[in-house]
From TrEMBL, chain A:
Taxonomic superkingdom: Bacteria
Pfam families reported in the protein's UniProt record: ABC2_membrane_3
Protein's organism: Hymenobacter roseosalivarius DSM 11622
Coiled-coil portions: none
TM regions (residue ranges): 21-42, 180-198, 230-252, 308-332, 344-365, 371-388, 400-422
Name the record gives this protein: ABC-2 type transporter transmembrane domain-containing protein
Keywords tagged on the record: Cell membrane, Membrane, Transmembrane, Transmembrane helix
Localization terms from the record: Cell membrane
Membrane topology field: Multi-pass membrane protein
GO molecular function: ABC-type transporter activity
This protein's record includes keyword Cell membrane: yes
Record SUPFAM superfamilies: Periplasmic binding protein-like II (SSF53850)
Entry GO CC: plasma membrane
Higher taxonomy: Bacteria, Pseudomonadati, Bacteroidota, Cytophagia, Cytophagales
Residue span, ABC-2 type transporter transmembrane domain: 19-419
From TrEMBL, chain B:
Keywords: ATP-binding, Nodulation, Nucleotide-binding, Transport
Sequence similarity: Belongs to the ABC transporter superfamily.
Pfam families to which the protein is assigned, alphabetical: ABC_tran, DrrA1-3_C
Name under which the protein is recorded: ABC transporter related
Keyword Translocase in annotation: no
Gene3D superfamilies: P-loop containing nucleotide triphosphate hydrolases
Domain ABC transporter: 5-232
GO molecular function, one term: ATP hydrolysis activity
Endpoints of the signal sequence: none
Superkingdom per UniProt: Bacteria
Keyword Zinc-finger: no
Length: 446, 312
C-alpha cells in the first residue's frame, strides 16, 4: 500500500508540474466558455444580415403587398412577373433566391418554384415555404370570408408546465435544464476518459521504452505499479476538472459582466419575445411569458437534486475512468510504441463512443426506457448512461446501488485482466502482439 | 561459508523455448559471483526470477535459507542490462523515488543520496533532468540507484557495458568495497574475460543448463593440464619420458619459448632442474586456462560439434 501511494505521488506531481498541464488548465476554461458564449454572440451577429429574395408574382398571390417582418432574416423584393425577365434580372443582382409564383388554382396550387444560385440553405427554403403557406392560407381564409384580424385573436400560445409527481411531493421541472445538465455531465466523463485514459497508456509505453520498468518491477508488483499509475493520473484529472469548473465560472461571470447585461440570457429573451410577438401577443403578455420562462429555468435548476447529481457524477467519473484506465494501461503494456496501439484501441473505445451517441438521442428522449436502463447497468456503458438518467429522476435507489456495485465489480475485473496482460507484456520488447496471445497471457502462470 | 542464495532445480519455459532447464546454484555470502554464458543462455531469465519480476515454473530459490518472498525485495539491488531512468525527472527526485520504492524512509534516503552524489561528483547535476546528462553520467546515477538501499545481494547485468575505462574502474572499486562491507555481488555477463579477475566463484550457463560451477581457483585447478611455459636462452633439447613438448619456438639471438606438459606425478621442480642443466631460464610459469577457454572446452564436450561455432 505504501508503494502504491509513492507511485501515486510521483505520477501526480510529475504531471501537474508539466507545462502542458498548466496550459490546458488555463486554455480549457476559455474553450469551454467559448462553447457557451460564442453561439450567443453568433446569433446576435447573424441577425443583422438579411437574405434578399426576389419575388416574381405572376399569380398575384401577394396582391402587390410583400410580407414584411423586421425580425425575420428574409427580405422580399418585387421583380417583373414575367419569369424570363425576372430570371435575367435576378442573375444581375446579388440576391439569394428567386421565388416564382405562376398563375394558380387556390384550391390546389402547383408550379411554385424557387431558383437559387447554388444549392439553397435548408433554413432559407423552409422559411420561404412557411411564408408561402401562410399567404395561401390567408388567401383561402379571405375567400371563405374570415377576417385575418379575427383569426389572429383566436391563436393560442400555451406553455405546458411540467411537474414531477414523486414521493417527496410535487416539483416543477424543466426538461431543457435537466437535459442540459445530463448532457454536460456525460460529455465531461466521455472527454476525461479519453484524455486521461490515453495518458495512462502513454505513461506505460514511456516506462517501457525508457527501460526503467525493469528496475521498478524489481521493487514493486505489476499490480501496484498499475494501480498507482491509474490512481495518480485520476487525481490529475480530478484536479484539472475542479480547476476548469472554478476557472470557467470566473470567465463566464467575467465575460457576462463585461458585456453589460447577461448576453446569453438577453439574446434568449429577445428570441422568445420575437416569437411571441410574431404570434400576435401584446408586449405585456410577452414580458410576462419571458419572466415565466426564466423563472422556470431557475426553478428547474433549484429543483434538481444537486447533491445526488454531483455525488453520483463524481462516482461515475472516477469509476468509469478507473475501468477504462486499467484497459488503456494494458494496451500500453502490450505494445512497443504508440503507432501499434490502434488495433487495441478500437474495441475499448467502441462502447464509450456508442454510449455517448445513444445518450444524445435515445437516452435523453427516454431516460427510463429499456435501452437507458440496461446501458446504465453494464459497467462499460454505465458511467455515461447513468449520469444521463440521474438528473431526470426515476432512478430508484436500488437501481443506483446495483449499477454502482456492478461498476466496482467491473473495475476490479478489468484491473485484474489488465494486470495480467501488464505483467507479461511489460518486459516484452520488439514483438507484435496479437489478440490470441493477449488472451493466453491472462492465464499465464508466473 | 553459508550461502546467501540457493537455486534448486529451477525450470522456466516460455511459449516457444526453454529458458532454464533444471538449474541449481549456490551463491556464497560475501562473494563476487560470476553468472557467465553466451547471449540467450538463460542468465536474464534466472535474474528475473531472483529479482521476483517473474516466477519459476518449478524449482525453488532460497534467500538465506528462506523461500524467496516479497520481503526480500528490499535486500536485493538490480542493475538491468538495458539501463533506463525516467527521462523527464530530476536526478535527486528520481533517486529518492527509487530508494523509497525499495522501502527506505525519506530521511534515510536523502542522507544516503547526498553521500553518493558527492562520491561520484554529481553535485552540479542533482537538479537536472536525466535527459540532460551524458550517458556515462546516467550510468552512474543508475548504479547509485542500485546500491542506495544497501542491499545484501547486488545483481549487475553486464555492469561495464557503456562505461568508459575511467568510470569502469570507478565502478570496479565501488564493487570491491561493497563486498568488503559485506554485500554479495552477482555479475552476469557474456564477456567472461571482463569479470574473471574479480569473481570468487562462477557458474557457466549454456543453452538453459548449468554446465559448470564452483570457486574460480578450483575450476581452474580442475582444468589445468599441468603445462608450463618456459622462456630462456640456449639450445633446448627435451628428450625425457616425463616431459612432453607441446610447442617450441626459436626466437632471435638464441632465445626460445616452449610449452611443456608434465606427466602424472612429475613436479615442476623436476622440469626446472632438467632445464637448468641445459639452458638459461628467464621465465617459468604454469599455464592456467582462462575461464573463456574452459568454457569453450566445456561447451565442446557437452554439445555436438556443429553447434559449437554459433554458440561461442
Amino acid at each position: 500500500m505504501d508503494k502504491i501511494w509513492l507511485i501515486v505521488q510521483r505520477e501526480y506531481i510529475t504531471r501537474v508540474r508539466k507545462k502542458s498541464f498548466l496550459i490546458m488548465t488555463f486554455v480549457g476554461p476559455l474553450l469551454m466558455s467559448a462553447l457557451f458564449v460564442v453561439p450567443a454572440l453568433l446569433t446576435q451577429m447573424g441577425s443583422d444580415e438579411k437574405k434578399i429574395v426576389t419575388v416574381a408574382d405572376a399569380g398575384g398571390l401577394f396582391a402587390g403587398q410583400l410580407p414584411e417582418n423586421e425580425k425575420s432574416d428574409i427580405r422580399y423584393v418585387h421583380a417583373p412577373p414575367d419569369l424570363e425577365t425576372a430570371k435575367a434580372e435576378f442573375k444581375k443582382s446579388k440576391n439569394s433566391a428567386l421565388l416564382y409564383i405562376p398563375p394558380f388554382d387556390l384550391a390546389n396550387p402547383t408550379g411554385i418554384k424557387l431558383f437559387g444560385r447554388e444549392n439553397l440553405s435548408l433554413t432559407l427554403q423552409l422559411g420561404i415555404e412557411r411564408m408561402v403557406n401562410r399567404q395561401v392560407e390567408a388567401a383561402r381564409l379571405r375567400k371563405s370570408g374570415i377576417d385575418q384580424q379575427v383569426l389572429d385573436n383566436l391563436k393560442a400560445d400555451i406553455d405546458v408546465a411540467t411537474v414531477n409527481l414523486s414521493a417527496e411531493g410535487e416539483k416543477s421541472s424543466n426538461s431543457m435544464v435537466t437535459s442540459g445538465v445530463a448532457y454536460f455531465m456525460a460529455f465531461l466523463i466521455y472527454l476525461f476518459i479519453f484524455l486521461y485514459g490515453v495518458q495512462i497508456m502513454r505513461g506505460v509505453i514511456e516506462e517501457k521504452t525508457s527501460r526503467i520498468v525493469e528496475v521498478i518491477m524489481s521493487s514493486v508488483k505489476p499490480f501496484q505499479l498499475m494501480m498507482g499509475k491509474v490512481l495518480g493520473i485520476a487525481a490529475v484529472g480530478l484536479t484539472q476538472l475542479l480547476l476548469w469548473v472554478a476557472l470557467s465560472s470566473i470567465v463566464i461571470t467575467g465575460v457576462s459582466a463585461a458585456m453589460g447585461l447577461d448576453t446569453v440570457t438577453t439574446s434568449r429573451t429577445e428570441q422568445i419575445q420575437t416569437a411571441a410577438q410574431s404570434a400576435g401577443a401584446t408586449p405585456a403578455e410577452t414580458e410576462k411569458k419571458t419572466a415565466v420562462l426564466l423563472q422556470s429555468v431557475s426553478e428547474g435548476f433549484a429543483n434538481l437534486n444537486l447533491p445526488l447529481i454531483i455525488g453520483s457524477f463524481l462516482f461515475y467519473f472516477l469509476g468509469g475512468y478507473l475501468l477504462y484506465g486499467a484497459l488503456f494501461g494494458a494496451i500500453g503494456a502490450a505494445v512497443d510504441n504508440e503507432t501499434d496501439t490502434q488495433q487495441f484501441m478500437l474495441p475499448i473505445t467502441m462502447p464509450l463512443i456508442l454510449t455517448f451517441i445513444v445518450a444524445q438521442s435515445v437516452m435523453i428522449r427516454d431516460p427510463n426506457g429499456p435501452i437507458a436502463f440496461w446501458m446504465s447497468m453494464i459497467p462499460f456503458t454505465s458511467p455515461i448512461a447513468m449520469v444521463i438518467r440521474i438528473p431526470f429522476g426515476g432512478v430508484t435507489a436500488g437501481q443506483l446501488l446495483l449499477s454502482m456495485a456492478l461498476l466496482i465489480v467491473g473495475f476490479i475485473g478489468t484491473i485484474w485482466i489488465a494486470a495480467r496482460i501488464y505483467r507479461v507484456g511489460i518486459l516484452l520488447y520488439g514483438k507484435k502482439v496479437t489478440y490470441k496471445e493477449l488472451s493466453r497471457w491472462m492465464f499465464y502462470k508466473g | 561459508m553459508s550461502n546467501i542464495l540457493q537455486a534448486i532445480d529451477v525450470h522456466k519455459a516460455y511459449e516457444s523455448h526453454v529458458a532454464l532447464n533444471g538449474v541449481s546454484l549456490d551463491i556464497p555470502e560475501r562473494s563476487i559471483f560470476g553468472l557467465l554464458g553466451p547471449n540467450g543462455a538463460g542468465k536474464t531469465s534466472l535474474i528475473r526470477i531472483i529479482t521476483q519480476i517473474t516466477g519459476a515454473d518449478s524449482g525453488e530459490i532460497r534467500f538465506r535459507g528462506e523461500r524467496l518472498n516479497p520481503r526480500h525485495i528490499a535486500q536485493i539491488g538490480y542493475l538491468p542490462e538495458e539501463r533506463g531512468l525516467y527521462k523527464k525527472m530530476k536526478i535527486g527526485e528520481q533517486l529518492l523515488y527509487l530508494a523509497q520504492l525499495k522501502g527506505l524512509s525519506k530521511a534515510d534516503a536523502t542522507q544516503r543520496i547526498k553521500a553518493w552524489i558527492d562520491r561520484f561528483d554529481l553535485r552540479p547535476w542533482v537538479g537536472k533532468n536525466v535527459e540532460d546528462l551524458s550517458k556515462g553520467m546516467q550510468q552512474k546515477v543508475q548504479f547509485i540507484a542500485t546500491v542506495l538501499h544497501e542491499p545484501s545481494l547486488i545483481i549487475l547485468d553486464e555492469p561495464f557495458s557503456g562505461f568508459d575505462p575511467i568510470n569502469a574502474n570507478l565502478i570496479k572499486d565501488e564493487i570491491l568495497e561493497l563486498r568488503e562491507k559485506g554485500a554479495t555481488i552477482i555479475f552476469s555477463t557474456h564477456r567472461m574475460e571482463s569479470v574473471e579477475e574479480m569473481c570468487d566463484s562462477i557458474a557457466l550457463i549454456n543453452r538453459s543448463r548449468k554446465v559448470l560451477d564452483g570457486p574460480v581457483g578450483k575450476i581452474k585447478d580442475t582444468f589445468k593440464t599441468n603445462t608450463y611455459e618456459v622462456e630462456g636462452k640456449g639450445r633446448l633439447m627435451v628428450i625425457h619420458p616425463d616431459f612432453e613438448v607441446l610447442e617450441h619456438k626459436e626466437r632471435e639471438n638464441g632465445f626460445f619459448y616452449d610449452r611443456i606438459r608434465l606427466h602424472e606425478g612429475v613436479t615442476p621442480n623436476d622440469l626446472l632442474r632438467y632445464l637448468i642443466g641445459q639452458v638459461e631460464v628467464h621465465a617459468f610459469r604454469e599455464q592456467i586456462p582462462s575461464i573463456n577457454e574452459i568454457f569453450i572446452r566445456r561447451v565442446r564436450e557437452t554439445m555436438p560439434e556443429s553447434l559449437v561455432e554459433e554458440n561461442v
